[in-house]
Amino acid sequence: MELFLQSIANGLVQGGFFALFAVGLVLIFGVMGVVNFAHGELVMVGAFTIWLLHAQAGLAYIPAIAVAIVLVTVIGLVMERLLFRPTRSDPLAGLICSIGVLFILQVIAALIGGDGPSKQVPPPYHGTLIMFDALRIPYQRVFSLVISAAALGSLWFFLTRTKFGWALRAVAMDREAAELQGINTNRISMVAIGVGTALAGLAGGLIAPLTNINPHMGHNVIVTAFIVTIVGGVGSLSGAVLAAILYAMFHTLITVYIGGTIATISGLVLMVVVLIVKPTGLMGVKVSE
Amino acid sequence: MNSAALKGKRGFTIQKLAIGVVGLIALLITPHFLKFHHQDLLIFLTINVLAVCSYRLVTLTGEWSLIHAVMMGVGAYTVALSVNHFDLAIWFTLPLAGTAAGLVAALLCFPLLRMTQFYFLIGSFAAGEAIRLIWVEFVGVFGGTSGLRGVEAPIVWGIDFLDPIPYFYFTLCVVSFCLLILYRIENSRIGLTLHSIHWKAPLAESVGVDAWRYRALAFILGSFFVGIAGGLKVHYLGSVTPNQFTIGFMVFILIWVIVGGYNKFYGPIIGVVVLTIFDESIRSFEVIRPAIYGGMLILSILFLPMGLESIPAKLKSLFGSDSAPDDQALSDQ
Amino acid sequence: MPVLEINNVTKQFGGLMALDDVSFQVEEGEIRGLIGPNGAGKSTMFKNIAGFYEPTSGNIVYRGVNIGGKQPHTIAEMGIVRTFQETTLFQELSVFENALIGTHIKSRTNVFSAVLGLDRAKQQAASDKVMDVLEFMGLVERRDQLASELPLGSQRALALAIALVSEPKMMLMDEPFAGMNAEETNHMMDLTRKVRESGITIVLVEHDMKAVMGLCNYLTVLNFGKLLAEGTPDEIRNNDRVIEAYLGGA
Prior knowledge:
By secondary structure, chain B is an all-alpha fold. Chain B has helices spanning 3-10, 14-29, 36-59, 68-86, 90-112, 117-137, 139-142, 164-186, 189-206, 211-237, 247-260, 267-281, 289-303, 311-318, 326-331; strands at residues 155-156, 159-160. In chain B, 72% of the residues lie in helices and 1% in strands. Chain C folds into two domains: 1-79 and 168-250, Rossmann fold (3-Layer(aba) Sandwich); 91-165, no CATH class. Chain C has helices at residues 42-50, 72-78, 95-101, 111-116, 120-136, 152-165, 182-197, 209-215, 233-237, 240-246, and strands at residues 2-13, 16-27, 31-35, 57-62, 65-66, 80-83, 170-174, 201-205, 218-223, 226-231. In chain C, helix 3 packs parallel to helix 6 (152-165). The longest helix of chain C has 17 residues, at 120-136. Chain A binds chain B through residues 29, 35, 83, 86-87, 90-93, 95-97, 99-104, 106-108, 110-111, 115, 219, 223, 226-227, 230, 234, 259, 261-262, 264-265, 268-269, 271-273, 275-276, 279, and chain B through 64, 111-112, 114-115, 118-119, 121-123, 125-127, 129-130, 133-134, 136-137, 247, 251, 254, 258, 287-288, 290-291, 293-298, 301-302, 305.
């Protein structure tokens, strides 16, 4: 029972990460119509930045996260301007370009960090929170969870209460109609990818002390992001958050009781099942014709 | 496929025949001049030609799957298992490999082909990953991450296929045969119907074309042929591991097809040949190779979206050709 | 005996009622006009008949068989073929190849025959059929031209040809006269009459009143998804409610 609760708790923390990068992916896809295959690598860059600046160079953790976010956002904006905007008419082309970026980022990371064993970042926050005499959650994880929740909350506020947010949603629903209404869709695309990649950078920064860092860690991220996105409903941000949390718990439980590979296989099968039974996912809206 | 191409097929000229014969002779004697390592490469190149041409059949309907590399693995594992457990001869293992991949594809049609475009892409990616992870997980059957080994080289008619040169000729025969079939399919009415689904599925449906069935046909046939390619690979290498068929390899296939071009039958062939040679030349830059590929992919998409196959036509228009396309000019002689 | 029965068909999209309890019948050999102002639901009705939509309620009966909800290709096999609004052709293919796609229903081929070349007779028959139809439509000289290179009138004729090759018994023509000048309209009207004379029942959605009045023997008028009126062209021309609906149309 303790194990179960502990797994749920760990799942919740992981769900926070999953939500951060899944939401970013959905945002980019919803507003720009393109699948950013390099999204996992963006998280990886965020994590590597923490390793380089915090673990190696001694910069404090929080500023390092800030740098990670800025760096990843810049990469995202460059991608939008150079790759996604020229290929807007052909989303497949945009996807292929993002695969190209994937490779380039992996190589850069390998060059900077060397391709040796995975790197570790010692957690800046020590100590463990003990709840109900049974649950032990390291403060590092508590920190991640709180920051994830805060980021997602801010995003929700941004999307529903600000002018930019409304514009984003308008473009996501109907790009042409939004243009006709005078919305600068290019700028909105940049905002969308800026926010989406910033979240990825943040995720990378938060994950860094909790996982092994290597140039190929992005693979698992993108697989998870796809599963979460599809299960939650493509185009639905709340669906993505909900699916992220549920899937994280699902995956953690199966990993603990059976095994990590089976957990991922189950996730993939789940995703295919959702695609068959309810392609719009948990909360997606069916687009007619 | 356009009218000029249709006419060109009938305009079979001495020139074309001569080029073909010279090319064939060159192909046949090349391996004797190559180092061992390059002989290996030539064999893999030939196998990869089958992989990309079979992929092109799938994409004729306009759908890009990400499971093709894994299908090659299905063929490879089938051969490994049938040789290790049943000691089957290569005449049986290769068709078996193709059939196995085709069957897996047929099963996957039902879940996967309900989706199109983005969803199909992601769904096929997921299904492929799941299959690959099954190879990793079920160590007893598939050998886990180390895969299966000890697949004995076939000995046919007293020729030991462990030797690259005989195996190259064998592979060349098998691949050529498969390419011939693929070519004929594409240029038949079936190919025409596949194209019609790609361009205007509702129009095709309104005259009775069942789009689902044709997508399924393309998917199953494409998988069948890449399964054979996988079988050829494992017969030569002697072992198979899950890491040979990751999304990384799938991306290579994509790169070959996209950079080479996929409007014509030979586009992907150009892609895989040019890029394999290029790959060899940058061998020393091992670490940054993926980045070079990434860069090429991006440059290709942005600046040469129709692929390398479109270069002859571009050059022609650049230098102001005074008459009709290639084929007609030749056939008028 | 009516060849097509629309019985109380309703089609809803979320809150939008595109078709509201519409009923009418089409007799064999007619040229029926389905008219009405923009947004009346005419194209939606076509899509329901041809299988691209499924009626929310009500049924559609073709020669005694309920076809509501069947797949488009199944309905095509049963003999109902639809042409599309705006020009829908396989632009990258030649005129001949475009029409060849239409032979699919009548002469299917399978992979083995195609590869081994066993179906040569079928191929020839299909080819001949295509040439017949191209001649019928006056497109023979253009047979090798790319569809994208054709003038408007020929493009519409080609769309008709693709449909005709599949030997339909009923054709749903969706605004074939759109964007045509007087000469092209006359030519198209001739072609349409030829098609009907070859034994095909036609239902025509069209805004061009000259074509409608000149071709159709009976008209069904829709407005806001509901059936507004039915009658001969003369009756409809003088129907106050129809005139009002069009706001000074015909």
